[in-house]
Amino acid sequence: MDIEASPVRIAPWSEDDLTLLHAANAPELMRHLGGPETDEAVAERHARYVALSAESMDKGRMFRVELVPTGEAVGTIGFWERTWQGEQVYETGWAILPPFQGRGLASAATRAVVEAARAQQHHRHLHAFPSVDNPASNGVCRKAGFLLQGECALEYPVGHAPMRCNDWRLDLEAPGIPSS
User: Fold this and answer.
1) In this model, does residue 25 exceed pLDDT 90?
2) Positive or negative, the Cα torsion across 77, 12, 58, 81?
């Protein structure tokens, strides 16, 4: 019997991950998120990620995505608290560096972050809000077992015009998630 192991692992975000965050700020990765951020904004985001990863995990956690078995950092993923439609939920988001895209790494990392959020037993739902114009991220949601709730408008980044997103939701109390 063949057992397929995940091609990635997620490791908690650390002070050493600023270079990875700069790499994830590439125009091709940020085109659905309002474009690349300034160096100052990336530094502020990094500080928020480090702080979130130092708190109790029930508030969320940011991770670097690493290839197995080499440990090479290939992207970012995390989950964090937010209020959505009057409910406290977790939200998730990810970025896989361009040379590593198209290999199922984002889906594998998303399944790992689902399990991390599920283990907290803190919120029932995990949401993802990819742009309606981002077929790859919408596909990740589908493969990771999220259910499409419909379109919505989200202000991202804060202070910018709302973007059209799909609201994908996963019930963290439901058993298991797809393996592929």
Assistant:
1) no
2) negative
